């Protein structure tokens, strides 16, 4: 089954009259809120110009800002015991600059679906560099006792080793980029009696369709060649998804390897949570924050703005933000227009 990875229609990016996604609109918002801002900032020279914002964020050390972001999240995050963290990458499509010979930035993020927050991120040159970037990101974070989920790009022995050394478990998608492993996992499920598998099923109805998922876990790894080369490998998992649509049923089968032992229910939850990184992070960044259409390119500006977007998302999705029973888009509007709402989200009120 194929799922489109194309960005949302461009028309969606025009529905953000409240958005401050470039230096000029940031300046305009600052001028409209100058009285409120002076409660927390001296502003001896007033609100900076758009060109001053542009020059400043081009020159701010993105690595230093990223380190500060990670430090803040370490103070904010909740206990990770048994929680899942999804690691996935996203390209800021228009951040390239032909004039400077600069490619579009690709950001790998660690997303905690339980509280809908970005725990950390790291920039890579391109998508293929995720393999080296993921261990770097994991080494920056406190992930002990968590379950780390990664798509097939991250199904690498070095990444599995990093996760285990950091005291966490992994659940890695297995696809054609690991052909021998995929063959062995399929063979394991094909030759193991159903009665010997740990089973779990879920049923979910939304947006006019029904999706039924059947999860199966096997802890007998005797048919996995070179299983010992995967640090801490304890089980393999199969997910069979059946989507009941108006014009028929679409079926998909996916496979995973995990360092988690007999715990099919928890792994089922972690696998399901992984898709939150697409629906609740990447999609929101594109549609609500306009990341896919952003033309900020020069210097460190694109990476710094990517960090600021995720910082803003964390405030909107934080405990105070969630008390506003509305969508992220409307919370952002409330933060832009309502000083009391903004102070509440920032923990100032």
Tell me the structural class. alpha+beta
The CATH architecture term of the largest domain is Alpha-Beta Complex
What is the residue-averaged pLDDT?
Answer: 87
* Helix fraction bin: 25-40%
Individual helix count: 13
Point out poorly predicted stretches: 1-15
Number of structurally distinct domains: 2
State which percent range the strand residues make up: 15-25%
Rounded Rg: 22 Å
Largest sheet: 9 strands, mixed
Order of helices and strands: HHHHEEEHEHEHEEEEHHHHHH
The outline comes out as elongated
Strand order of the largest sheet: 3-2-1-4-5-9-8-7-6
Distance between the termini: 49 Å
Level-1 CATH class name of the largest domain: Alpha Beta
State the CATH topology of the largest domain. Answer: Transposase Inhibitor Protein From Tn5, Chain A, domain 1
Can you tell me the CATH superfamily of the largest domain? Transposase Inhibitor Protein From Tn5, Chain A, domain 1
Q: What's the number of extended β-strand segments?
A: 9
What do you see in this structure?
The protein is α+β, with helices and mostly antiparallel strands and 349 residues long. It folds into 2 domains: 34 residues, no CATH class; 258 residues, Transposase Inhibitor Protein From Tn5, Chain A, domain 1, CATH 3.90.350.10. The protein contains 13 helices and 9 strands. Strands 3-2-1-4-5-9-8-7-6 form a 9-stranded mixed β-sheet, sandwiched between helices. β8 and β9 form a beta hairpin. α3 packs across α10, α4 runs parallel beside α10 and α5 runs parallel beside α6. The longest helix is centred in the last third of the chain and has 17 residues. The radius of gyration is 22 Å and the shape is elongated. It starts with 22 loop residues before the first helix and ends with a helix.
């Amino acid at each position: 089954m194929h799922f489109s990875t194309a960005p949302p229609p461009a028309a969606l990016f025009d529905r953000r009259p409240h958005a401050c996604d470039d230096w000029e609109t940031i300046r305009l918002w600052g001028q409209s809120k100058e009285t409120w801002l002076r409660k927390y900032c001296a502003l001896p020279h007033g609100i900076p110009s758009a060109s001053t914002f542009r020059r400043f964020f081009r020159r701010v050390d993105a690595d230093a800002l990223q380190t500060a972001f990670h430090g803040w999240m370490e103070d904010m995050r909740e206990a990770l015991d048994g929680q899942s963290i999804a690691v996935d990458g996203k390209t800021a499509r228009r951040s390239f600059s032909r004039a400077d010979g600069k490619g579009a930035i690709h950001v790998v993020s660690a997303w905690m679906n339980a509280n809908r927050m970005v725990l950390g991120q790291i920039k890579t040159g391109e998508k293929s560099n995720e393999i080296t970037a993921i261990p770097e990101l994991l080494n920056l974070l406190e992930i002990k006792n968590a379950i780390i989920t990664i798509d097939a790009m991250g199904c690498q022995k070095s990444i599995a080793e990093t996760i285990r050394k950091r005291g966490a478990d992994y659940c890695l998608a297995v696809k054609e980029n690991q052909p021998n492993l995929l063959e062995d996992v399929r063979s394991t499920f094909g030759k193991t009696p159903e009665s010997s598998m740990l089973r779990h099923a879920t049923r979910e109805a939304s947006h006019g369709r029904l999706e039924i998922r059947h999860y199966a876990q096997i802890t007998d790894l005797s048919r996995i060649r070179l299983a010992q080369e995967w640090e801490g490998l304890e089980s393999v998992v199969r997910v069979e998804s059946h989507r009941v649509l108006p014009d028929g049923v679409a079926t998909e089968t996916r496979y995973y390897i995990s360092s988690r032992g007999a715990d099919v229910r928890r792994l089922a939850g972690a696998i399901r949570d992984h898709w939150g990184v697409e629906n609740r992070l990447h999609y929101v960044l594109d549609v609500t924050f306009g990341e896919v259409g952003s033309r900020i390119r020069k210097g460190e500006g694109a990476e710094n703005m990517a960090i600021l977007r995720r910082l803003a998302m964390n405030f909107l999705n934080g405990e105070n933000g969630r008390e506003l029973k509305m969508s992220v888009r409307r919370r952002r509007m409330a933060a832009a227009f309502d000083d009391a709402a903004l102070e509440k989200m920032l923990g100032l009120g």
